[in-house]
Amino acid sequence: MATINGRPAKYRITLKELRELMEHRGHEGIQRVSDYGGVQGIMERLYTSEDKGLSGNRQDVEHRRETFGSNVIPPKPPKTFFQLVCEAIQDITLIILIISAVISLLLSFYQPKDDSGDAAIVEEDEHHGWIEGFAILVSVIVVVIVTAFNDYSKERQFRGLQSRIEGEHKFSVIRNGEAIQILVGDIVVGDICQIKYGDLLPADGILIQSNDLKIDESSLTGESDHVKKGETVDPMVLSGTHVMEGSGKIVVTAVGVNSQAGIIFTLLGAAVDEQEQAIKKMKKGEQGQVTSNSHITHDNNGTGNDLEAFHGHYAAKNPEATTERAATPNRDEVPSGGGHKKEKSVLQAKLTKLAIQIGYAGSTIAVLTVAILVIQFCVTKFVIENSPWKSIYFNDLVKHFIIGVTVLVVAVPEGLPLAVTLSLAYSVKKMMKDNNLVRHLDACETMGNATAICSDKTGTLTTNRMTVVQSYICEKLMKVTPKFSDIPNEVGPKIIEGISVNSAYTSQLMPGPNPGDLPMQVGNKTECALLGFVEGLGKSYQQIRERIPEKAFVRVYTFNSDRKSMSTVIALPNGGYRLYTKGASEIILKKCAFIYGHEGRLEKFTRDMQERLLHQVIEPMACDGLRTISIAYRDFVRGAGKAGINEVHLGPNDEPNWEDEANTVNNLTCLCVVGIEDPVRPEVPDAIRKCQKAGITVRMVTGDNINTARSIATKCGILRPQDDFLILEGKEFNRRIRDSNGDIQQHLLDKVWPKLRVLARSSPTDKYNLVKGIIDSKINESREVVAVTGDGTNDGPALKKADVGFAMGIAGTDVAKEASDIILTDDNFSSIVKAVMWGRNVYDSIAKFLQFQLTVNVVAVIVAFIGACAVQDSPLKAVQMLWVNLIMDTLASLALATEMPTPDLLLRKPYGRTKPLISRTMMKNILGQALYQLIVIFGLLFAGERLFDIESGRGAELHAEPSQHFTIIFNTFVLMTLFNELNARKIHGQRNIFQGIFTNPIFYSIWIITWVSQVIIIQYGKMAFSTKALTLEQWLWCLFFGMGTLIWGQIVTTIPTRKLPKILSWGRGHPEEYTEAINLGGDDSRYDPMDDNKKPRAGQILWIRGLTRLQTQLRVIRAFKSTLEDLEDRRSIHSLRSLRNMHVAQTPVTASLLYANRQFLRGLNRDQSPPASITIQVPTSPININEMNARYIDDDGPDDRSSETRI
Predict the structure, then answer these.
(1) How far apart (Å, rounded) are the C-alpha atoms in residues 1155 and 116?
(2) Which of 114, 140, 466, 1002 is 20 to 30 A off residue 242, Cα-Cα?
(3) Are 828 and 464 in contact (CB under 8 A)?
(4) pLDDT attached to residue 192
(5) Which residues, if any, are the signal sequence (predicted)?
(6) Closest CA to 1177 of 283, 331, 269
(7) Considering only CA atoms, which of 247, 243, 171, 238 is closest in space to residue 1136?
(8) Is-contact 849 419, C-beta < 8 A?
(9) How many CB atoms lie under 10 A from the CB of residue 635?
(10) Is 119 exposed, middle or buried, given 0-12, 13-18 or 19+ CB atoms closer than 10 A?
(11) Which ranges of 22-80 does DSSP label H, i.e. alpha helix?
(12) By the 8 A CB rule, do 813 and 792 touch?
């Protein structure tokens, strides 16, 4: 028999059997597991063991991977360059240009049968006639390739982040008897995984052992209630679900595409493709509107039918889920996106509105230009000259049409989305180096507008390396670790055992990487501090854990915000039980009836003694910034002897009622109180000072004691002596913000939050209410933009509600990371300050580009329009305007969007929500420069031939040789544009426009390349660019006019901005005003086809989806978002909640339906004839804040800053 690593090569259970096994739940699941001899039997069949796990042998792991699959879901293949080219060329304006250019090209070879004079003209110029049409085609190809290359390179760049994200996501497994962290992708069937609070489960498995385990399966079922799991209740745990409470051990039974979530992904891929096809049909105007609740019929391969089938099958077997789904029929009103897409970012909202408005204005002028050119041509030829129709006139009409389309191309600011994308992409890449991993691109820009930061304490403001520095044992307060021999025998062993047993077994102290280094704290840092105290006493917690393994526990009451404690019950040798408890001192002491006094004497713990201990020991510790934890116990004894005063006597057949927690965890005996220090990070006070200078208010929201919070806040600089501030506990905060009916009132919140600096003993509801209250408040004209940090599972609501949510990369749970916008890879507050700086830089970069582009837009459109009216021709030819368009869109956006941030950015106040996008200073610069450029261009147009003593270019015939006159106009315009690009680098009225120019090599490289290209175009462009070579003198004049923009810029700067009317600013007001316009443009928006009032008009769809290119051009941003979110999905392997954020799931796909997939598969295995239709309808599971509150892991107890289940 073939063997692998000493065991048979053939497993005694097949992949198919395991897949079928994982489709069962509850008692049915227990029955199926018992058919295989229980979980122990399954482990034997997979050649693994509970205690030893897998051997970790490479050959063994590879064989399991080949047999049962690897724990990765193949990513959606990236779009090829050719696909991106095809997408780029679908833009309506480009298509119109291509058609026009092709017609122009064909007409140039067409020789009409006419009188000899006209034929002679055609023959004379026919070798030039094709050049213009061909040049336009080449220009279009260049634009398309540049756009596609931008898309391609950025998509590759973001896929490059994948390895970083995947490399950071590890999971705890037991291999060769040791608990180790391995990459999620390396988990194989047969691995023994340790699961704990906050974990996102990476594979399907069966519980071996669990403690008070509750799992959120809403990502699969759509049900918001947490599901209790246990070996005797429901042992099946599924990938993509979240551990909300408790801990346990599982044996992995299915990974990757064979897990329940993987099966759903496989089916879903076909369903989503179908829905995308249906949407494409809808866009083409075919019958049948596809909305978020559409029934998509799929007759060819049955995928759609399958989904419909299991939808019905699941509804039949799970009436509660159906009721829950039916009760919320309008779930689709919640934007799909995992709750993240609360609204468009401030900048994107205003930019989209601006782009649409410019599109309308530009297109109106383009239509007028064509109309005027055609009317003037017809009047001249057919009325004044009274000429008959000739076929050659087609060329003239096509030429006029091309000019109009080109005006439209120049007018439509398609560079805006590109500039946003480039700036964000560049910033995101750089922010990685500053320990900010950006999950949602718009968060980067929003952070620049932040006016308030609500920060956690532990790990963010402090180092999260905790140590016990004070202890109170047997009426002795010690500020150094005592000797174990100095602790009375009655007390010492119980303290050691109580800490070792009543802490998560995943919390450990590991040797440092180098000899002499401090031990590494793995898991919950508070528990690690207590384990360090045990080691400091000279004892080994590991020996006690080996003597009392987790499977020996009788009951575990895990930490939550209601308990603010954790308790573990173990069996005693005499048949009794001992309950150990630890938690927040003031909470535990209230439950204590006894205490060990001087020399270990057991004493009754009276109310007076409690008060004295509180005031003389606990409060002084808290005022020193220490977290205080009490450790206590209670014995339940059997036997004939009399029980002690602090013991509970049990009869021979009596068992404590473990369900009655209130009476079980009561009448405790206090063993000790310890003070744990978590020092403030040395860089935090300076970072907070920078925030305050930048106009950002920092608030601390913590679950810790109010005295500890006040001490840390003072050390950080959050509380300053000269400030009028407020420090509240959660209870007092709630009393102040609620009316007599217990409802939160905004006007009451508005009295509290402006002065509030520290919120202590807070719950997740308090944190959420504070964030929501600040965001919704209208007492400040500029409105607040709020950033929040969080790391616990139940920080999710506040992280999602915030404008920008920061999750901790080290201490944060998977759930918190999924709810966040940015992950702090070093958990450090100073990284948030860097995010603010980058965010402000993004906003300023976009504003610079806007100032530059709008000047070009205004000038080019007016010149083309007035030129058409005055001289029956545009001074700027079609190919020339395409070149200008390339300069001002792609090249300028790249140059201006890649400016590096400077510390000066933190010296101004934040913009807030209502700051105008185009300030009065910017409008002054735009209008000032446009005025100068128009005067110069029209001066050259009407007087240039006299100034330079050259032949006039006005009134030239079709296909006439290019003139120096119009070449000078084109050259001067481009040079003025180039020098104005230097002016555009400063938007706040600074005079030194060259400051920092050499810190951005991209800018000066592009500027020089554009210059060189312009020289080549002028001197050698000839017919292709409608240019004629200029002399040195003419070049110097062009340069003189170009450099004049710099001098003129200084003159414009001297005009006082304050005296300008506010009407000159644009984009003032709250971004909500702009969301209607945006919702028409993006793929994410949905409307009800039955509601005519909400349905966008055909004209709006044409403009927004076509001429303005917003839908087409924003694909870059969507590609980035989807790529980042895809990476997050793959990082967690099956995070189905993230599925709502995925690019493929931009059309809604329901979570409850996904769970039903499994039921369908079971039905399909039994009956191979699937029914005939598909319904994809996904409720985004709501977050019940009140339920969350009960499970909040706050700063109070040992559990708050970790991904551990217990304290």
Answers:
(1) 80
(2) 466
(3) no
(4) 93
(5) none
(6) 331
(7) 238
(8) yes
(9) 18
(10) middle
(11) 26-35, 38-45, 58-68
(12) yes
Helices (DSSP H) in 568-664: which residue ranges? 585-590, 607-613, 619-623, 661-664
Cα separation, 523 vs 251, whole angstroms: 21
3-class secondary-structure state, position 177:
coil
Predicted confidence at residue 254, as pLDDT, reads 92
CB-count exposure of residue 34 (10 Å: 0-12, 13-18, 19+): exposed
What is the pLDDT confidence band of residue 290, given thresholds at 50, 70 and 90?
very low
Q: Do residues 1147 and 1174 touch, judged by C-beta distance below 8 A? A: no
Selecting among 204, 456, 766, 1200, the annotated active-site residue is 456
Which of the two residues, 168 and 650, has the higher pLDDT score?
650
37: alpha, beta or left? (left if phi > 0; alpha if psi -120 to 50)? left
Helix locations, 694-795, DSSP H: 706-716, 730-737, 746-752, 764-776
- Which residues on neighbouring strands pair with residue 627, listed in sequence order? 676
- Of 331 and 443, the structure prediction assigns the larger pLDDT to 443
Task: Using a pLDDT cut of 70, give the percent of the chain over it.
Answer: 73
- pLDDT band, residue 893 (cuts 50/70/90): confident
Calpha distance 242→196 (Å, rounded): 9
For the beta carbon of residue 720, count every other beta carbon within 10 angstroms.
Answer: 13
What does the alpha-carbon distance between residue 1002 and residue 1024 come to, in Å, rounded to a whole number? 29
- Contact criterion met (CB below 8 Å) for 945 and 951: yes
CA distances from 114 to 110, 111, 272, 307, 1005 (A): 12, 9, 59, 68, 53
How far apart, in whole angstroms, are the C-alpha atoms of residue 173 and residue 163?
Answer: 21
The torsion defined by the Cα of 215, 218, 221 and 223, in degrees rounded to 10, comes to 100
CB 740 within 8 A of CB 708: no
Nearest CA-CA partner of 360 in 411, 419, 418, 417: 411
Q: State both tokens at 484.
A: 């174990």
pLDDT at residue 376, rounded to an integer: 84
10 Å CB burial of residue 996 (0-12, 13-18, 19+) is middle
Cβ-Cβ contacts under 8 Å for 1182 (sequence gap 6 or more): 224, 328, 334
Distances (CA, A) of 1101 to 618, 909, 1080, 1106: 66, 38, 7, 7
Asked whether residue 116 carries a pLDDT value surpassing 70, the answer given is no
> Could you count the other beta carbons within 10 Å of the beta carbon of residue 1097?
9
**The residue type at 621:** M
Asked if 1088 is an active-site residue, the reply is no
* Proportion of the chain above pLDDT 90, given as a percent: 15
Percent of residues in the chain assigned helix, strand, coil, to nearest 5: 50, 15, 35
DSSP H or E segment with residue 923 = helix 920-948
Please tell me the number of Cα atoms within 13 Å of 1032 on its side-chain side: 0
**Between these two residues, 252 and 682, which has the higher pLDDT value?**
252
* Lowest-pLDDT range of 651-655, 731-735, 763-767, 953-957: 953-957
* 913 closest CA partner among 832, 1078, 803: 803
Dmax of the chain from CA atoms?
A: 132
Q: Rounded to whole angstroms, how far apart are CA atoms 600 and 611?
A: 21
Reduced to 3 states (helix: H, G, I; strand: E, B; else coil), residue 164 is helix
Q: Are strands 295-296 and 476-478 parallel, antiparallel or unpaired?
A: unpaired
| Residue 154 burial class via C-beta count within 10 angstroms: exposed 0-12, middle 13-18, buried 19 and up | buried
DSSP reduced 3-state for 918: strand
Q: Which of 210, 194, 205, 215 is nearest to 261 (CA)?
A: 205
CA distances to 210, 215, 232 from 195, rounded to whole Å, are 9, 11, 18
